[in-house]
Protein backbone atom coordinates (compact mmCIF):
# COMPACT_ATOMS: atom_id res chain seq x y z
CA UNK A 1 0.00 0.00 0.00
CA UNK A 2 1.03 3.65 -0.31
CA UNK A 3 1.24 5.75 2.81
CA UNK A 4 2.40 9.11 4.11
CA UNK A 5 5.22 8.47 6.60
CA UNK A 6 6.44 10.74 9.37
CA UNK A 7 9.93 9.41 10.12
CA UNK A 8 10.73 11.98 12.77
CA UNK A 9 8.79 14.85 14.28
CA UNK A 10 9.67 18.02 12.38
CA UNK A 11 8.83 20.17 9.33
CA UNK A 12 5.89 19.12 7.14
CA UNK A 13 8.10 18.96 4.04
CA UNK A 14 10.02 16.05 5.62
CA UNK A 15 6.99 13.79 5.19
CA UNK A 16 7.52 11.08 2.61
CA UNK A 17 5.02 9.11 0.55
CA UNK A 18 6.15 5.52 0.15
CA UNK A 19 5.16 1.99 -0.79
CA UNK A 20 4.99 0.01 2.48
CA UNK A 21 3.82 -3.54 3.30
CA UNK A 22 0.10 -3.91 4.02
CA UNK A 23 -0.72 -4.29 7.71
CA UNK A 24 -1.70 -7.84 8.78
CA UNK A 25 -5.46 -8.40 9.19
CA UNK A 26 -6.16 -9.15 12.88
CA UNK A 27 -8.98 -11.01 14.59
CA UNK A 28 -12.10 -8.84 14.78
CA UNK A 29 -10.80 -6.45 12.13
CA UNK A 30 -11.59 -5.48 8.53
CA UNK A 31 -9.37 -4.09 5.80
CA UNK A 32 -10.48 -0.90 4.06
CA UNK A 33 -9.50 0.40 0.65
CA UNK A 34 -9.28 4.01 1.71
CA UNK A 35 -11.44 6.29 -0.46
CA UNK A 36 -10.66 9.54 1.39
CA UNK A 37 -8.76 10.59 4.51
CA UNK A 38 -9.82 13.67 6.46
CA UNK A 39 -7.07 16.18 7.26
CA UNK A 40 -7.22 18.04 10.56
CA UNK A 41 -5.23 20.95 11.95
CA UNK A 42 -4.11 18.61 14.74
CA UNK A 43 -2.39 16.28 12.22
CA UNK A 44 0.05 19.07 11.36
CA UNK A 45 0.73 19.76 15.04
CA UNK A 46 1.40 16.05 15.74
CA UNK A 47 3.80 15.73 12.78
CA UNK A 48 5.75 18.82 13.81
CA UNK A 49 5.97 17.78 17.48
CA UNK A 50 3.86 20.79 18.51
CA UNK A 51 1.01 18.83 20.10
CA UNK A 52 0.67 17.75 23.74
CA UNK A 53 0.95 14.10 22.58
CA UNK A 54 4.29 13.17 20.91
CA UNK A 55 3.72 9.99 18.90
CA UNK A 56 6.60 7.49 18.56
CA UNK A 57 8.12 7.55 15.06
CA UNK A 58 7.87 6.39 12.36
CA UNK A 59 4.09 6.68 12.08
CA UNK A 60 1.42 7.19 9.45
CA UNK A 61 -0.65 10.29 10.31
CA UNK A 62 -4.37 10.64 9.66
CA UNK A 63 -7.24 10.20 12.10
CA UNK A 64 -10.40 9.75 10.06
CA UNK A 65 -11.03 7.69 6.95
CA UNK A 66 -13.75 6.55 4.65
CA UNK A 67 -13.13 3.28 2.88
CA UNK A 68 -14.65 0.30 1.17
CA UNK A 69 -14.43 -2.96 3.15
CA UNK A 70 -12.32 -5.30 0.99
CA UNK A 71 -11.43 -8.05 3.51
CA UNK A 72 -12.95 -9.34 6.75
CA UNK A 73 -11.16 -11.57 9.27
CA UNK A 74 -12.88 -14.96 9.55
CA UNK A 75 -14.59 -13.99 12.84
CA UNK A 76 -16.20 -10.89 11.27
CA UNK A 77 -19.50 -11.01 9.40
CA UNK A 78 -18.92 -10.92 5.65
CA UNK A 79 -22.05 -8.73 5.39
CA UNK A 80 -19.64 -5.81 5.75
CA UNK A 81 -17.85 -6.70 2.49
CA UNK A 82 -18.13 -3.95 -0.11
CA UNK A 83 -19.74 -1.48 2.33
CA UNK A 84 -18.69 2.19 2.37
CA UNK A 85 -17.78 2.91 5.98
CA UNK A 86 -16.12 5.58 8.08
CA UNK A 87 -13.74 5.04 10.96
CA UNK A 88 -11.96 7.15 13.54
CA UNK A 89 -8.55 5.45 13.35
CA UNK A 90 -6.38 7.66 15.54
CA UNK A 91 -3.32 7.10 13.34
CA UNK A 92 -2.77 5.47 9.93
CA UNK A 93 -5.41 7.30 7.90
CA UNK A 94 -3.11 8.86 5.26
CA UNK A 95 -2.73 5.61 3.30
CA UNK A 96 -4.41 3.61 0.58
CA UNK A 97 -5.38 0.87 3.07
CA UNK A 98 -6.35 0.76 6.73
CA UNK A 99 -7.03 -2.13 9.09
CA UNK A 100 -9.69 -1.22 11.66
CA UNK A 101 -11.81 -2.93 14.31
CA UNK A 102 -15.02 -4.17 12.74
CA UNK A 103 -17.08 -2.95 15.71
CA UNK A 104 -15.72 0.57 15.22
CA UNK A 105 -16.70 1.07 11.57
CA UNK A 106 -19.85 3.00 10.79
CA UNK A 107 -21.85 2.47 7.64
CA UNK A 108 -22.26 5.80 5.89
CA UNK A 109 -25.76 7.09 5.20
CA UNK A 110 -26.53 7.96 1.57
CA UNK A 111 -27.03 11.58 2.68
CA UNK A 112 -23.24 11.99 3.03
CA UNK A 113 -20.74 12.06 0.18
CA UNK A 114 -17.44 10.22 0.68
CA UNK A 115 -15.63 13.55 1.12
CA UNK A 116 -18.09 14.85 3.73
CA UNK A 117 -18.02 11.55 5.62
CA UNK A 118 -14.21 11.55 5.74
CA UNK A 119 -13.97 15.07 7.13
CA UNK A 120 -16.88 15.84 9.48
CA UNK A 121 -16.17 13.58 12.44
CA UNK A 122 -13.70 15.59 14.52
CA UNK A 123 -15.17 19.02 13.89
CA UNK A 124 -18.83 18.00 14.31
CA UNK A 125 -18.34 15.80 17.36
CA UNK A 126 -16.32 18.57 19.00
CA UNK A 127 -19.08 21.09 18.25
CA UNK A 128 -21.88 18.78 19.33
CA UNK A 129 -20.03 17.86 22.53
CA UNK A 130 -19.27 21.51 23.26
CA UNK A 131 -22.78 22.82 22.70
CA UNK A 132 -24.90 19.93 24.02
CA UNK A 133 -22.72 18.58 26.83
CA UNK A 134 -20.47 21.43 28.00
CA UNK A 135 -22.32 24.69 27.38
CA UNK A 136 -25.36 25.55 29.43
CA UNK A 137 -27.96 26.08 26.75
CA UNK A 138 -31.35 27.51 27.57
CA UNK A 139 -32.50 28.41 24.09
CA UNK A 140 -35.04 25.60 23.77
CA UNK A 141 -36.46 25.90 27.29
CA UNK A 142 -36.56 29.69 27.64
CA UNK A 143 -37.55 30.58 24.10
CA UNK A 144 -35.24 33.60 24.53
CA UNK A 145 -32.97 34.50 21.62
CA UNK A 146 -29.36 33.38 22.26
CA UNK A 147 -26.41 34.73 20.33
CA UNK A 148 -23.20 32.81 19.58
CA UNK A 149 -20.04 34.37 18.15
CA UNK A 150 -17.83 31.83 16.33
CA UNK A 151 -14.17 32.72 15.69
CA UNK A 152 -12.29 31.05 12.79
CA UNK A 153 -15.77 30.38 11.41
CA UNK A 154 -14.56 29.34 7.94
CA UNK A 155 -12.19 26.68 9.30
CA UNK A 156 -13.18 23.07 9.94
CA UNK A 157 -14.04 23.35 13.63
CA UNK A 158 -15.55 26.86 13.37
CA UNK A 159 -17.75 26.06 10.38
CA UNK A 160 -19.12 22.95 12.09
CA UNK A 161 -19.96 25.12 15.12
CA UNK A 162 -21.86 27.56 12.89
CA UNK A 163 -23.89 24.69 11.42
CA UNK A 164 -24.58 23.13 14.83
CA UNK A 165 -25.41 26.45 16.49
CA UNK A 166 -27.99 27.24 13.81
CA UNK A 167 -29.46 23.72 14.13
CA UNK A 168 -29.79 24.24 17.90
CA UNK A 169 -31.64 27.51 17.41
CA UNK A 170 -28.83 29.97 18.21
CA UNK A 171 -28.37 33.21 16.30
CA UNK A 172 -24.86 32.78 14.97
CA UNK A 173 -22.35 35.53 14.17
CA UNK A 174 -19.44 34.17 12.12
CA UNK A 175 -16.02 35.86 12.16
CA UNK A 176 -13.58 34.91 9.39
CA UNK A 177 -10.76 36.57 7.48
CA UNK A 178 -11.81 35.96 3.87
CA UNK A 179 -14.95 36.24 1.78
CA UNK A 180 -14.94 32.55 0.76
CA UNK A 181 -14.82 31.53 4.44
CA UNK A 182 -17.61 33.96 5.37
CA UNK A 183 -19.72 32.71 2.45
CA UNK A 184 -19.48 29.11 3.74
CA UNK A 185 -20.71 30.34 7.15
CA UNK A 186 -23.59 32.31 5.59
CA UNK A 187 -24.59 29.22 3.61
CA UNK A 188 -24.90 27.34 6.93
CA UNK A 189 -27.25 29.95 8.32
CA UNK A 190 -25.07 32.50 10.12
CA UNK A 191 -27.27 35.59 10.56
CA UNK A 192 -24.30 37.95 10.44
CA UNK A 193 -20.64 37.79 9.45
CA UNK A 194 -17.64 39.84 10.57
CA UNK A 195 -14.49 40.37 8.53
CA UNK A 196 -11.93 39.47 11.22
CA UNK A 197 -9.06 40.81 9.08
CA UNK A 198 -10.49 44.34 8.83
CA UNK A 199 -13.19 44.84 11.46
CA UNK A 200 -13.19 45.05 15.25
CA UNK A 201 -14.74 41.65 16.01
CA UNK A 202 -15.59 42.43 19.64
CA UNK A 203 -17.34 45.74 18.87
CA UNK A 204 -19.21 44.40 15.85
CA UNK A 205 -20.42 41.32 17.79
CA UNK A 206 -21.72 43.56 20.60
CA UNK A 207 -23.50 45.82 18.11
CA UNK A 208 -25.07 42.94 16.17
CA UNK A 209 -26.25 41.09 19.30
CA UNK A 210 -27.58 44.24 20.96
CA UNK A 211 -25.14 44.39 23.87
CA UNK A 212 -23.24 41.14 24.13
CA UNK A 213 -23.25 37.53 22.94
CA UNK A 214 -24.30 34.57 25.09
CA UNK A 215 -21.68 32.11 23.80
CA UNK A 216 -18.21 32.63 22.35
CA UNK A 217 -16.98 29.54 20.44
CA UNK A 218 -13.22 29.95 20.19
CA UNK A 219 -10.96 27.59 18.20
CA UNK A 220 -8.51 30.48 17.57
CA UNK A 221 -7.47 31.92 20.96
CA UNK A 222 -4.52 34.36 20.97
CA UNK A 223 -5.23 38.07 21.18
CA UNK A 224 -8.48 37.65 19.25
CA UNK A 225 -9.84 35.29 21.91
CA UNK A 226 -8.61 37.55 24.72
CA UNK A 227 -10.36 40.57 23.20
CA UNK A 228 -13.57 38.74 22.35
CA UNK A 229 -14.07 37.58 25.94
CA UNK A 230 -15.27 41.18 26.36
CA UNK A 231 -17.99 40.63 23.74
CA UNK A 232 -19.82 38.29 26.15
CA UNK A 233 -22.92 39.66 27.86
CA UNK A 234 -24.35 38.78 31.30
CA UNK A 235 -23.72 35.10 32.18
CA UNK A 236 -21.96 34.70 28.81
CA UNK A 237 -19.99 31.51 28.21
CA UNK A 238 -16.53 31.34 26.65
CA UNK A 239 -15.98 27.87 25.14
CA UNK A 240 -12.24 27.19 24.99
CA UNK A 241 -11.77 25.01 21.89
CA UNK A 242 -8.33 25.58 20.36
CA UNK A 243 -5.26 27.75 20.04
CA UNK A 244 -4.30 28.17 16.38
CA UNK A 245 -3.52 31.83 17.18
CA UNK A 246 -1.79 31.10 20.52
CA UNK A 247 -2.95 30.41 24.07
CA UNK A 248 -5.05 33.37 25.25
CA UNK A 249 -4.27 34.97 28.61
CA UNK A 250 -7.81 35.57 29.87
CA UNK A 251 -8.07 38.39 32.44
CA UNK A 252 -9.92 37.10 35.51
CA UNK A 253 -11.52 40.52 36.11
CA UNK A 254 -13.27 40.20 32.74
CA UNK A 255 -14.59 36.78 33.77
CA UNK A 256 -15.91 38.20 37.04
CA UNK A 257 -17.60 41.12 35.30
CA UNK A 258 -21.10 40.31 34.05
CA UNK A 259 -20.89 36.88 35.74
CA UNK A 260 -19.17 35.29 32.74
CA UNK A 261 -18.02 31.66 32.64
CA UNK A 262 -15.04 30.05 30.94
CA UNK A 263 -15.63 26.43 29.92
CA UNK A 264 -12.97 23.98 28.71
CA UNK A 265 -13.81 21.57 25.89
CA UNK A 266 -11.56 18.53 25.36
CA UNK A 267 -13.61 16.26 23.13
CA UNK A 268 -10.72 13.96 22.07
CA UNK A 269 -9.67 12.93 25.60
CA UNK A 270 -13.30 12.69 26.72
CA UNK A 271 -14.17 10.46 23.74
CA UNK A 272 -11.22 8.18 24.56
CA UNK A 273 -12.49 7.74 28.13
CA UNK A 274 -16.17 7.50 27.12
CA UNK A 275 -16.50 5.40 23.96
CA UNK A 276 -20.18 4.77 24.65
CA UNK A 277 -20.91 8.42 25.25
CA UNK A 278 -19.04 9.26 22.06
CA UNK A 279 -21.02 6.66 20.07
CA UNK A 280 -24.16 8.38 21.38
CA UNK A 281 -22.83 11.78 20.21
CA UNK A 282 -22.15 10.34 16.76
CA UNK A 283 -25.63 8.84 16.59
CA UNK A 284 -27.17 12.21 17.42
CA UNK A 285 -25.05 14.01 14.80
CA UNK A 286 -25.82 11.42 12.11
CA UNK A 287 -29.55 11.72 12.88
CA UNK A 288 -29.35 15.51 12.41
CA UNK A 289 -27.46 15.03 9.13
CA UNK A 290 -30.06 12.49 7.93
CA UNK A 291 -32.80 15.00 8.81
CA UNK A 292 -30.89 17.62 6.78
CA UNK A 293 -30.55 19.84 9.87
CA UNK A 294 -26.74 19.67 9.62
CA UNK A 295 -24.76 19.93 6.40
CA UNK A 296 -21.02 19.22 6.63
CA UNK A 297 -19.03 21.08 3.99
CA UNK A 298 -17.85 19.32 0.83
CA UNK A 299 -14.06 19.28 1.36
CA UNK A 300 -11.27 20.36 -0.97
CA UNK A 301 -9.49 17.34 -2.44
CA UNK A 302 -5.70 16.85 -2.47
CA UNK A 303 -3.70 13.80 -3.53
CA UNK A 304 -1.99 11.60 -0.97
CA UNK A 305 1.32 12.72 -2.50
CA UNK A 306 0.29 16.33 -1.70
CA UNK A 307 -0.19 15.66 2.03
CA UNK A 308 2.51 18.14 3.10
CA UNK A 309 0.97 20.86 0.90
CA UNK A 310 -2.52 20.16 2.24
CA UNK A 311 -1.28 20.42 5.84
CA UNK A 312 0.68 23.61 5.08
CA UNK A 313 -2.34 25.21 3.34
CA UNK A 314 -4.43 24.45 6.42
CA UNK A 315 -1.80 25.84 8.78
CA UNK A 316 -1.35 28.99 6.67
CA UNK A 317 -5.13 29.69 6.69
CA UNK A 318 -5.50 29.15 2.92
CA UNK A 319 -8.27 26.56 3.27
CA UNK A 320 -11.95 27.46 3.51
CA UNK A 321 -13.78 24.52 5.09
CA UNK A 322 -12.17 21.08 5.16
CA UNK A 323 -9.58 19.02 3.28
CA UNK A 324 -9.34 15.34 2.34
CA UNK A 325 -6.58 13.28 0.73
CA UNK A 326 -7.33 10.69 -1.94
CA UNK A 327 -5.06 8.11 -3.59
CA UNK A 328 -3.15 9.59 -6.54
CA UNK A 329 -4.82 7.27 -9.05
CA UNK A 330 -8.29 8.20 -7.70
CA UNK A 331 -8.32 11.89 -8.67
N1 LIG B 1 -11.16 21.18 21.94
C1 LIG B 1 -11.32 20.15 21.16
O1 LIG B 1 -11.85 19.11 21.58
C2 LIG B 1 -10.83 20.22 19.74
C3 LIG B 1 -11.18 19.25 18.80
C4 LIG B 1 -10.72 19.38 17.48
C5 LIG B 1 -9.93 20.46 17.13
N2 LIG B 1 -9.58 21.38 18.08
C6 LIG B 1 -8.75 22.54 17.77
O2 LIG B 1 -9.48 23.47 17.04
C7 LIG B 1 -8.55 24.33 16.37
C8 LIG B 1 -9.04 24.63 14.96
O3 LIG B 1 -8.99 23.47 14.18
P1 LIG B 1 -9.56 23.47 12.70
O4 LIG B 1 -9.54 22.06 12.24
O5 LIG B 1 -10.81 24.25 12.60
O6 LIG B 1 -8.43 24.28 11.94
P2 LIG B 1 -8.58 25.06 10.54
O7 LIG B 1 -9.56 24.35 9.68
O8 LIG B 1 -7.22 25.27 10.07
O9 LIG B 1 -9.25 26.45 10.94
C9 LIG B 1 -8.65 27.32 11.86
C10 LIG B 1 -9.08 28.74 11.53
O10 LIG B 1 -8.49 29.57 12.51
C11 LIG B 1 -8.22 30.85 11.96
N3 LIG B 1 -6.92 31.38 12.41
C12 LIG B 1 -6.76 32.52 13.11
N4 LIG B 1 -5.49 32.72 13.43
C13 LIG B 1 -4.80 31.69 12.92
C14 LIG B 1 -3.43 31.35 12.91
N5 LIG B 1 -2.50 32.11 13.52
N6 LIG B 1 -3.06 30.22 12.27
C15 LIG B 1 -3.98 29.44 11.67
N7 LIG B 1 -5.32 29.72 11.66
C16 LIG B 1 -5.71 30.84 12.27
C17 LIG B 1 -8.28 30.70 10.45
O11 LIG B 1 -9.40 31.44 10.06
P3 LIG B 1 -9.28 32.96 9.57
O12 LIG B 1 -8.33 32.93 8.40
O13 LIG B 1 -10.67 33.27 9.22
O14 LIG B 1 -8.75 33.75 10.74
C18 LIG B 1 -8.57 29.23 10.19
O15 LIG B 1 -9.55 29.08 9.18
C19 LIG B 1 -7.19 23.64 16.46
O16 LIG B 1 -6.43 24.29 17.46
C20 LIG B 1 -7.54 22.25 16.91
O17 LIG B 1 -6.48 21.68 17.66
C21 LIG B 1 -10.04 21.28 19.37
Your description of this structure?
The longest helix has 16 residues, at 275-290. 47% of the residues are buried. The chain has helices at residues 41-47, 114-119, 121-134, 139-142, 156-167, 179-187, 201-209, 222-228, 252-256, 267-273, 275-290, 307-315; strands at 2-5, 16-19, 29-39, 64-72, 84-88, 97-101, 106-107, 147-150, 171-176, 192-195, 213-218, 232-240, 261-264, 300-303, 323-326. The two termini are 17 Å apart. The model has no long low-confidence stretch (mean pLDDT 95). Strands 3, 4, 5, 6, 7, 14 and 15 form a seven-stranded mixed beta sheet that branches. Strands 10-9-8-11-12-13 form a six-stranded parallel beta sheet, with helices on both faces. The chain has a two-stranded antiparallel ribbon with strand order 1-2. The protein folds into two domains: 2-120 and 299-330, Medium-chain alcohol dehydrogenases, catalytic domain (Quinone Oxidoreductase, Chain A, domain 1, Alpha-Beta Complex); 123-268, Rossmann fold (3-Layer(aba) Sandwich), CATH 3.40.50. The protein is of the alpha/beta class and 331 residues long. The chain is built from twelve helices and 15 strands. The protein is globular and about 60 Å long. β8, α5 and β9 form a beta-alpha-beta unit. The site of NADP nicotinamide-adenine-dinucleotide phosphate has 28 residues, from α1, α3, α5 and α10.
Amino acid sequence: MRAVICKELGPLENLSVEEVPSAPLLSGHVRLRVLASGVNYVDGLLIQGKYQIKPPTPFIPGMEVVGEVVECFEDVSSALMGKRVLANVGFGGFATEAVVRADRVITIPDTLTTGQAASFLQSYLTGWFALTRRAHMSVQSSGKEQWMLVLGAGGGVGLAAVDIGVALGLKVIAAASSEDKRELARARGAVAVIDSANEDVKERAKEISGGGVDILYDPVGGTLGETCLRALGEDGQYLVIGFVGGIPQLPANQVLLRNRRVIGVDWGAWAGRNPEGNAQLLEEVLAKIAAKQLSPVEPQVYLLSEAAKALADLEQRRVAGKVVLVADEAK
